[in-house]
Amino acid sequence: MDAIILQLLNGLDKGSAYALIALGLTLIFGTLGVVNFAHGALFMIGAFCAVTLQRILSFSYVVEDPTQKDFLGRPLKVQTPYIESWFGPDFGSAIIDWSVPLAILFSIPIMIAIGFIMERGLIKHFYKRPHADQILVTFGLAIVLQEIVRTYYGANPIQTPAPQAFVGSFDFGSLLGFDPNVVIYPYWRMVYFGFSALIIGAVFAFLRFTTFGMVVRAGMADRETVGLLGLNIDKRFTLMFGLAAAVAGLAGVMYAPINAPNYHMGMDFLVLSFVVVVVGGMGSLPGAVLAGFMLGILESFASMNEVKDYFDGIDQIIIYLVAIVVLLTRPRGLMGRKGVMED
Amino acid sequence: MFGLNKKDSILMIAVAALALLAPFILNIFPNDSALAFFNAGYPDLMQRFVIFGIFAIGFNLLFGLTGYLSFGHAAFLGVGSYAAVWMFKLLNYNVVPAIVLSIVVAAAFSLVIGYISLRRSGIYFSILTLAFAQMMFVTAYSDLLGRWLGITLTNGETGLQVYNDDPQILLGNGPNVPHLFGLEMRAKEVWDIGPWEFTLPVGYYLCAVLMLASFYLAIRIFRSPFGLMLRAIKSNQTRLNYTGLNSKPYTLAVFVISGMYAGLAGGLLACMDPLAGAERMQWTASGEVVIMTILGGAGTLIGPILGSGAIKYLENVFSKLNEGLLHDWFGFMPDGLEGALVWVVSKFTGEGWHLTLGGLFMLVIIFLPGGLVEGGNKIRSWIQNRTGRGSPPADTASTPAE
Amino acid sequence: MSILEVQNVNKSFGGLKALQNVNLKVEEGTIHAIIGPNGAGKSTLLNCLVGKLTPDTGSVTFDGVSLLGKKPYEINQTGVSRVFQTPEIFGDLTVYENVLIPCFGKRDGSFEMNALMSVNSQKDIRAKAEQMLEDVNMADKREMRASSLSRGDKRRLEMAMCLAQDPKLLLLDEPTAGMARADTNNTIALLAEIQERRHITMAVIEHDMHVVFSLAQRISVLAQGTVIVEDLPENIKGHPKVKEAYLGGAH
To answer: Is 90 exceeded by the pLDDT of residue B227?
Structure first.
């Protein structure tokens, strides 16, 4: 029982990431009819926003500390971040420590700007082109983005720690009466799950309660009709793309401490998120979220030792296997509607 | 000739001539000249030209004719390589059983994957094939299947190769490298003619002959009723349905055929260098064959060959370029400009080849979706228009009436 | 003898009853027109016949075989061909290649799978395709890309493709919609000629009364999802129920 709860918890954070990426993919697909193969790259760029901010905040200059000596007896050279000299050592180091959460603020304008540029500069010209062209051009863009990141950040993963306050784990089991330290859940993962739930809730609320969201939902149900209503669809499309990019970016920012960002993480997540979208049902937002969490949790269960004894490494492919089964039995996915992408 | 019409026969002969004379054409620059850098007549590179040509020809049969965009074709190439190496391990280094098995295994895999993926079309199909390929990549990379069966099947990230303690039951006194009934693949003839040096590798000629056979088969498929049907599938499935025809068997058939082409390419890769690794199955490799086909011209006969040649050639040139060489090249410029130019260009060369590839990918799709063939046609008609000004346009068929 | 029999067919979309107890009998070798005001359910009925929609209740029998639950391509294999309101042709192929496809296809839905056979070597099939193009007066346009044809030509091409299958029943969905008068008259003449020469049974959905009364040997009038009258053309003219349906007297 305790092991099951542990895996359930472990699956939540990965599931959150899948759900957030899949949500953005579905939003773009549902409104614009474009499959964005560069969406994983947006997630990756989000994670590198966290890396970048951490680096910017840690920009240092060298001071010689006469009170300490190095092994040759010279005054020790100490790297001091500018930010500590501006805001005082305590507050300054706290800012650096909190760079990942701060990167949320840092990344939102960046991600929205990237989304705008992508939509206005590239995707817009592909609405009338065949789906294959849309896939291919965004695929090319994904390669370009990830290679640019590799050029500047190298091929190795970059550790991006969470604030000190979130280091350590919450002993979830003792709440439920299990032995202490059995069912533990790292604080940051809890934060990630909560954060994702918040964003998902915000996106759904936005679609539900604003006129903009209403148009978007109508557009997802019947794109042609909404186009005929004379609303300025173009502008909304751009906004929608920016929103989806921001969602993917935020998912990436907060994921940085969980998994050290590397340049190809976007594509790794993208493939799985596509599977999530297909399992959830193409064009269905609740389906994307549901399938994201489901598959995340399933993956985590598959990595239990009890399972691994039988099928070593099944956790690496379980999502694909499930997707195949779902597609064979329910070709439209769990919550897919008839008529979406069936031409 | 051989059941081809005149135009196709000329094309076939031209491709055959190019393939057979490639060792000379590609080493056109004398060895000690400054332009020798652009030569491409090395065994390894020439073999890759034709092997990826086979891969792209097969991919084009699926994508070019039916419009089904598979994003997982590298998986079949990968299993082909594994199958071939296994033949080396079990039997001996003769390439014939290796090639046969690589085609058979790829056919089996593509049958299963095609059967499931073709339940959906459009984007779904692309995503499904991508997912399958990624699953196979992970399985091969961690040798999951082997772990469950308790054997070494793909040898994980190290890659599969032949070891001394492998059974090789038919080895006997045969060569200890891949060979065709004793003719070693890596054997080569080197001709020195004046300042030129031409290398004629055995392995290349085997690949070239198989590429020509594949190309011939592709022409026959293009010109058959089956090929006509495949183009009809791309054009309008509704009409096909209301003509009493179920498109499934035909798409599945061509999916398997193109999987077999990929398997053959994978098997040949292993025959040239008896190694098989999971990285051949990665999504980047699948993406590469897509861009080869599109760069050349999807749906055209010659396109995939042009495309694979262009990509592999550029890859070779760009990867070889380093900063030292760039400084030499741009040396005539003022220092500041030279430094800046080298800095920019160096991002795209060497390690940065993938960045160039991605950029090229986007440029082709944005500006030249019909690929080099379409580009060539445009240039030709532009020239014709210039020279034939004054006379009425001959091509009325292409003016839309609506 | 009736070749197509529709009995008590019902079809509703959500709360909307598109078809209510529709009965229809099409006699072999005749041209049967189905007319009715907009929204009467003509297209729904047609879609039920070709397998695009499945009726909720009722039966559709063609040539003694029930069509219910069959997929469009299976229904076509029984001998039903359909011409669409917006022509469905292979736009990327040439006119000639368009006609070759149904010529290569056999009645049972099988198609030449031999990937090594050359289209050029099939003299009989090529001759048949050329004959079909002659029949619809399109032989001079055989090398044109189908998508570049005018709408009237597209419709004629589609008709040639359907006729190449030697159908027992040809369903035509507004064959003259959007056509100029001259084109309409050409189409009427073409259909009449085909009927005379090949005795193909046709069911025509049509708005244009000129077309209906020039061609039809029998007419069913559909209004609000039911057949209100079925009779000979001369009896339909001036029939009070038909007038009411078209002029909406009751409302």
So the answer is: yes
Q: What is the pTM of this model?
A: 0.89
What is the pLDDT averaged over residues B225-229? Answer: 92
CATH architecture of B6-378: Orthogonal Bundle (1.10)
How confident is the model at residue B392, as a pLDDT? 44
Residues of chain A contacting residue B138, judged by C-beta atoms under 8 Å apart: 316-317
Residue of C nearest to B216 (CA): C116
B242 — contact with chain C (CB < 8 Å)?
yes
Taking the Cβ of residue B20 and every Cβ of chain A, the question of whether any pair is shorter than 8 Å is answered with: no
Residues of chain C neighbouring B3 (CB-CB closer than 8 A): 116, 118, 121
Alpha-carbon distance B42 to B203, whole Å? 11
Confidence of residue A217 (pLDDT cuts 50, 70, 90): confident
Confidence band (pLDDT; 50, 70, 90) for C250? very low
Q: Is the pLDDT of residue B391 over 60?
A: no
A278 in contact with chain B, both atoms CB, cutoff 8 A = yes
Contact A27, A243 (CB under 8 A): yes
- Sequence spans of domains, chain C: 1-79+167-251, 91-166
CA distance B257 to chain A (A): 21
A88 versus C199: which is more confidently predicted? C199
* Residue given tokens 């045969």 in the structure block: B174
**Cα–Cα nearest to B180, from B97, B67, B274, B65:** B97
Q: Which amino acid is residue B16, in one-letter code?
A: A
CB contact under 8 A, B3 and C104: no
**pLDDT (average), residues A1-10:** 81
- Do B and A touch, 3+ Cβ pairs within 8 Å? The answer is yes
What is the reported pLDDT for C99?
92
- Residue environment code for C151-182, b if the CB has 16+ CB neighbours within 10 A, otherwise e: bbbbbbbbbbbbbbbebbbbbbbbbbbebeee
Measured between beta carbons, the chain B residues lying within 8 angstroms of A147 are 352, 354-355, 358
Whether residues B119 and A328 touch (CB distance < 8 A) is answered with yes
Q: How far is CA A193 from the centre of its chain?
A: 11
Under CATH, to which class is A2-56+99-329 assigned?
A: mainly alpha
Q: Does the structure show a pLDDT above 60 at C55?
A: yes
What would the two tokens of residue C126 be? 């090529």
B259-296 burial, b at 16+ Cβ within 10 Å, e below that, comes to: bbbbbbbbbbbbbbbbbbbbebbbbbbbbbbbbbbbbb
User: Would the CB atoms of B232 and C101 count as touching at under 8 Å?
Assistant: yes
pLDDT at residue B322 in the model = 80
Nearest CB partner across the interface for B223, out of C93, C102, C118: C118
Residues of C in Cβ contact (< 8 Å) with B369:
none
Of the pLDDT bands very low, low, confident and very high (cuts 50, 70, 90), residue B398 is: very low
**CB neighbours (10 Å) of residue A299?**
23
pLDDT of B402 higher than 60: no
Cβ contact B224–C105 (<8 Å) = no
- CA–CA min distance B241, chain A (Å): 13
User: What share of chain B has pLDDT > 70, as a percent?
Assistant: 96
- Range C1-79+167-251: architecture per CATH: 3-Layer(aba) Sandwich (3.40)
Q: Is A117 on the interface with B (CB under 8 A)?
A: no
